[in-house]
Write a structure and sequence with these properties.
Elements lengths: L1 E3 L5 H10 L4 E6 L4 E6 L2 E7 L2 E2 L1 H5 L9 E6 L10 H18 L8 E4 L14 E2 H8 L3 H14 L3 E6 L20 H5 L6 H6 L4 H14 L7 H17 L1
Antiparallel strand pairs: 1-6, 2-3, 2-6, 3-4, 4-5, 7-8, 7-9
Helix pairs in contact: 3-5, 4-5, 8-9
């Protein structure tokens, strides 16, 4: 089964697969892409590339109308994440909440700092990203986003001019190969420097974002963590457009 989200919205598609108790993999080809594994009409796995789970699924715009889909039947395994109707409701709620938080936060990768180290925000002394905070607190990403949003409003947190993805070292498969390309980003992305060092050396962050997005979507850049990185980079560019 194939189609387009413009004619078959994602919610309607999932409700149909649920009512017909279908098993298989639903692939949404869009930016970002999304995959959902269903067993007898319930979602048992899903996410954006290698970023899996409810946080990843709910980061996708549930009302997106751009992109195509393909459902491939087949038995799946795994524990039901949530009953379908509950999942759709929670998904929509998280989408709405994140839209509110993104008025102040451009992405979960942004690093924030607390100078005073109050009990709530003590982990931000020295700088932490929302993603890192969510792991340290042991809470879903949306809850970490809410806490940081509240900290920004109260003045207890300050955004820093860096992102957690600055720490990543990514090696392009064609890096340093003479004669194959004149593209400087490919040449210097040899894994010896992290992305923050490339920015410090003069690479424009927006140019780097667009390059990474293009490389991940094309499959030229394959590495652990590319799913959450793709989602965050897209959020950052969208936030800039909305400013």
């Amino acid at each position: 089964m194939e189609g387009n989200l413009k004619t078959m919205p994602l919610i309607s598609l999932l409700e149909m697969l649920h009512s017909e108790r279908k098993s298989g993999i639903l692939q949404i080809k869009s930016t970002p892409p999304l995959s959902l594994h269903l067993q007898v009409g319930e979602v048992v796995d899903g996410g954006i590339l290698d970023w899996r789970g409810l946080d990843a699924i709910a980061s996708y715009e549930i009302h997106a109308n751009k992109g195509s889909f393909r459902f491939s039947p087949g038995l799946q395994s795994g524990k039901v994440i949530m009953p379908m109707r509950t999942l759709l409701g929670e998904w929509a709620r998280i989408n709405d909440e994140c839209h509110r938080f993104f008025t102040l936060i451009d992405s979960p990768a942004r690093v924030f700092e607390s100078l005073e180290g109050t009990a709530t925000y003590s982990i931000f002394v020295g700088g932490r990203s929302v993603r890192t905070a969510a792991k340290m607190w042991g809470v879903p990403l949306v809850i970490a986003m809410e806490r940081v949003w509240a900290g920004l409003q109260s003045g207890e947190l300050t955004p820093l001019n860096r992102y957690v993805w600055y720490k990543l070292r990514i090696r392009h498969p064609r890096a340093r190969r003479r004669g194959e390309t004149d593209e400087d980003l490919i040449k210097i992305m040899d894994g010896e420097q992290n992305l923050g060092q490339l920015v410090a050396a003069g690479i424009n962050p927006d140019r780097l974002r667009r390059y990474l997005i293009k490389g991940i979507l094309s499959g030229d850049l394959v590495f652990s963590g590319r799913g959450w990185l793709l989602r965050d980079l897209l959020w950052e560019l969208e936030h800039q457009r909305n400013q």
